[in-house]
Each structure stands twice: as C-alpha cells, then as structure tokens.
Amino acid sequence: MQSDIKIVPIFPSSFCSIMIPEMVANFWVEETPNLSFYAAKSSAVWQTERDLLDNYVEMKELFRQIAEDCLKELGYNQKIHITTSWLTAIEHGENSTFHRHTNSWYSCVYYFHDSCSDLILIGNNRRDIDVAESKGSIHTNHTFAISPQKNQFIIFPSYLYHQVTTNTFKETRHSLAFNIMPSGKVGFADSTVNYGE
Q1: What is the three-class DSSP state of 153?
Q2: Phi, psi at residue 6, to the nearest 5°?
Q3: CB of 104 within 8 A of CB of 179?
Q4: C or N: which end of the chain has fewer Cβ atoms within 10 Å?
Q5: What are 108-130's pLDDT values in tens digits?
Q6: How do residues 55-74 score in pLDDT, each as one tens digit?
C-alpha cells in the first residue's frame, strides 16, 4: 500500500545559488575598509548607505546580470533593476533579527568572506494547527538553513522572513545585499503594470 503513496510539492518558495569568481570577492574585501557603516538604534547589524552599488556601476551591472540569470533558472525571463543595495557588518557574537524586504520582488546576498554565518529562511506555509512531525522534510519543515560559502550568491523571494545566525567567527561578518524589482511591463490585461527601466 505504501508504494502507492505519491507526494507532490506544490507552491514552492525556491531560492537559487551560484558561485562567483574570486576576483569579485577580492574587490569587496579591499573596498570594505573604505566604506562608512552605521547601525540603527538597538541593532547589532551595521550597514552602509542603501544605494551602495550606484557608486560601482560595473559591479551593479554584474550583479544585475547574475540575478537575471538565476531568475531564468527559476523560470522567469524578466528584465530587472536593483532598487537598494548595501554592505552589512555583524560583529562576533551578534546576529540579525528575523525580517523581510517589503516593496521588493526578490532579495539577493553575496558572501565575500570565509566567515559566513548561516542564513535562516522561514517558509510562508505555516499551518494553523501545529502538529509535531516525526521527521522533518521538504513537506513539513517551516525553516531552512543555508550555510553559505565564500563567493556564493543567493537569490530568494523577498516575502520570506530571514535571519542571520550568530557570528561565531572572531572577525566581523560582511556580505553584500540588494533587492530587485521587475523592469518594464509585467502582468496581464487589466493587471498590467509598467515599472519603468
């Protein structure tokens, strides 16, 4: 009887990942000491200005193209533009709170250091009745942990809540983050919107 059971994962919240050449990491490692960081009140996360990539036109285009390539793998053939971009800095023993990026379609993060804390994603498929599962699987898990590596680029839907786990490394954890929106016309019929270039 059990061999007849078929499970079909529907409505997934998929992310895409790709490794980027080392020279990109080298650039950001050298550039980071030249940047100014600030922290909001009661926040352990330090950030640069939120339009950072506007100061690095070639890097901005590189990351825009990488994000578009990842979106193609996810099934989209959509031009995009980067709306906000910043570097984060999390010191030893600190972590971020759970948050999401509203007014964005997808969010991206690039890791250019060896010391990378985990990124925890929370699914949007929480049930109203909490029943403990005997074993976790793609069908029952509500959280997913990514243990990023140096040079790894990750893109995920902006509606997903996420958190950076505690930085257990001696050095400050840095990463480059940015949000994207579609560029040009999207939608169908009376739900068409033109986001511009």
Answers
A1: strand
A2: -125, 125
A3: yes
A4: N
A5: 999 998 878 899 998 876 677 87
A6: 999 999 999 999 999 999 99
